[in-house]
Amino acid sequence: MSKNLVIVESPAKAKTIQKYLGKDFEVKSSFGHIRDLPKKGMGIDLATFSPDYEVSADKKKLVTELKAAVKKAEMVWLASDEDREGEAIAWHLADELKLKPENRKRIVFHEITKNAILKAIENPRDIDQNLVNAQQARRVLDRIVGFEMSPVLWKKIKPGLSAGRVQSVAVRLIVEREKEIREFVPKASFKLDGIFLNKTEQEISAKLKKDFEKEEDAEKFLEKAKTTEFKVLNVETRPGTRSASAPFTTSTLQQEASSRLGYNVTNTMRLAQRLYEEGYITYMRTDSVNLSQEAIEGAKKQITSEYGPEYSSPRNYTTKSASAQEAHEAIRPTDFAVKSIGDVQLNRLYQLIYKRTLASQMANAKIEKTVIEIGNASLPQHFEAQGEVIIFDGFLKAYGIVKTEDDDEENNEKLLPKVRVGEILSYKKITASEKFTRPSARYTEAGLVKKLEELGIGRPSTYAPTIQTIQNREYVDKREIDPQTREVVKMSLIKDKIKKEVLEEKFGGDKNKFVPTDIGEVVNDFLTDNFKEILDYGFTARVEESFDEIANGDQKWKEMMTNFYSKFHPRIEDVEENADRANGDRLLGVDPKTGKNVHARIGRFGAMIQIGETEDEEKPIFASLMSGQNIATISLAEALELFKLPFELNEFEGQGVSVGVGRFGPYVKWGETFISIPKGEDPLSVSQARAEEIINEKKKADAPIATYKGDPVTKGTGRFGPFIKYKDLFINVPKKYNFDSLSQSDINELIDAKLEKEANRYIQQWEKEKISIENGRWGPFVKFGKAMFKIPKKKDDTKYEAEELKDVSLDEVKKWITDQDKNAFVEKKKPAAKKPAAKKTTAAKKPAAKKK
């Protein structure tokens, strides 16, 4: 029996730590938080702001096991992560497991290495209640904001919406950037580039120092240049240096992993978590750029042995952020002797961290910058050529050079030929190209993290979940924006002749950048109009500062909550009572056929176009917007085109064919089968031949690939990955199978396993009533339709065994359901207007809400 029980929050971390501790220690995992605010209801006493924590159903068995392990141990070591979330996990464990102060110790470490673990064991402390209170304050405040603001959105916009303090501000940033792009008016100017030759025919590329606003001015310059003798007016060579960036913080790692590796924020954090838990890197949630003396020495030793002493330049960095926790360390390797690891995906991120840390301790790169001025006294402007030569590569040896999307497309790091002042040059080609100014770029995930950090909104642990949440809520997405086309003028001077041409260029296209959805814009506009302070960037940053003060012991968390709620709740009541409903309604114009108004707005099923008013005697007709269309930008002509859908085509193989657009995009309907039209294809352009082609492709994809006991088996790819379908069963195909060439034995194996699982799934089933008692991952439960219900304890306060549940009557199960949901069996009234509206709609259905 182990005298010591160590509790960490992840099984991977437990496995790594167990290697370093002897037989006197047993390491167990809590799998994150063991308790939290309840999923249903607010779970907070608003008079005292006391949270009502509960152990979630899926953690009850685990808590029982931990309690049993605690009884056997003499000392319990709480070793959750070193941040506020980790401190709260330790506090919840201590409280729920009834740990006495004399029988518990709190240990923290920046890295999971033998030295760090043993050092932590030698230097334990108690739970830091200030850190716990900071976490509680964040959790409670965010729960209150979400629970009180969300119902306002249900009432004023549409049911099912939700709001959050940090997430709503992140959406605001994206919406404001999109509006800025829409309102941006590009300005044209002419940029001149010249290629000049010296006597030995070596090329020198140069740019004119000033752009021309007008085409005629650029053309006049070219006319003058025809007869101009170009000379080298000045040559300037000056030394320069480049410094390495500081080691990674959470946000800079997310940004660099995005630009260098193409990883999104969630993926980066998932991989970094694994690297930390397996002992390769220090803790990955940090806003500090500090390195320990041990790390600085380790890096120096590695740099000296690998590159030479001249490359070593030990230093420490200072964090600019006032809120950064300097006691923490930057993200770095735990052992500089480990240059790579086996797992390919992990290794890519590890290499990035390894090289960045190493580079931060290396000497500056030395460069020599050369600037050549080319022109003639008779010309109003002169050309300038720039070149760079790396004299000593320094940190670049380890980290290399990375260009960002803000860098000039032209490569200025080129070597220029040797020239002298007064030397005559001839021009090979001078080009005047019309260029348009560009609006600010849409946010990438990394760019959004950078902006949130600049504004002081959120903390290292919040960036990834915030970005995931705003996408899950469908307030923003990363849909591809098709480019537009415009004409540009290009003039070229070659051999004393000016050639003018009008070219087409694409602009405004984007992919993998954040774009607000229609509902995201409507929700944002409503919140910014009615909850200005909550959505204010400065206010959100001040709330973060309050959490920091609580963590430092400079503010009491319940006093902060009282102050916040005393202003917040009256505002909620006022908005609920007095604010107008919002649906983003935009009047596009008048339908020429009916003379009725055409509106673009949010309806029950999303963005739509409406012809006619809700109050009219003749009911309005509706059409859904297509992918890429937006209620804020769609034109009247584009809106009216949508009412050409659905349209009928000729029958194919005895079944009717039509083309339409629905909630999930454009489709071809063949009989009762809906087949998605490929992305980017205009449904209005789908002809009979194209529709038949789409149907045949679907038939081919759905053709049986095998049989099982005489019945066909088909395959496909869905939102959860590749699957095979047998009768009504969808069976996921794991990666260990070759999906492209499944053998009959593979198919038999997959279906056999699924049937066996299904056979053990039901304890009792009443198909007609859509009620069943099923075996679940955490024990038996009741399912009614798609809803799941708990099985109550027996009268003697013990749990039902599976065998006993086989004899429970349907009436008893129904009682269990109604005890948890009194309206479960209440017949829902169908909207009376639904059927008539369906005849007039094209894709969307008439919303229930009436316009004021």
TrEMBL record:
**Chain positions of site Interaction with DNA:** 33, 138-139, 142, 154, 285, 473
Q: What class of enzyme is it?
A: isomerase
User: Which CDD domains does the record match to this protein?
Assistant: TOP1Ac, TOPRIM_TopoIA_TopoI
Q: Does the keyword Metal-binding apply?
A: yes
| Database matches in NCBIfam families | topA_bact (TIGR01051)
**Family assignment?**
Belongs to the type IA topoisomerase family.
Q: What is its EC number?
A: 5.6.2.1
According to the UniProt record, where is the region Disordered? 827-852
Keywords on record: DNA-binding, Isomerase, Magnesium, Metal-binding, Topoisomerase
> Per UniProt, what is one GO molecular function of this protein?
DNA topoisomerase type I (single strand cut, ATP-independent) activity
Instruction: Output the GO biological process annotations, alphabetical, semicolon-separated.
Output: DNA topological change
Give the species this sequence originates from. Answer: Chryseobacterium shigense
Superkingdom as given in the UniProt entry: Bacteria
Q: What is this protein called?
A: DNA topoisomerase 1
Q: How does it associate, per the subunit comment?
A: Monomer.
Primary role: Releases the supercoiling and torsional tension of DNA, which is introduced during the DNA replication and transcription, by transiently cleaving and rejoining one strand of the DNA duplex. Introduces a single-strand break via transesterification at a target site in duplex DNA. The scissile phosphodiester is attacked by the catalytic tyrosine of the enzyme, resulting in the formation of a DNA-(5'-phosphotyrosyl)-enzyme intermediate and the expulsion of a 3'-OH DNA strand. The free DNA strand then undergoes passage around the unbroken strand, thus removing DNA supercoils.
The record's active-site residues are: 283
Q: Which gene encodes it?
A: topA
- The Toprim domain covers which part of the protein? 3-112
**InterPro entries (alphabetical):** Topo_IA, Topo_IA_2, Topo_IA_AS, Topo_IA_cen, Topo_IA_cen_sub1, Topo_IA_cen_sub2, Topo_IA_cen_sub3, Topo_IA_core_domain
Pinpoint the Topo IA-type catalytic domain residues. Answer: 128-572
* Catalytically driven reaction(s): ATP-independent breakage of single-stranded DNA, followed by passage and rejoining
Q: Where is this region: Interaction with DNA?
A: 162-167
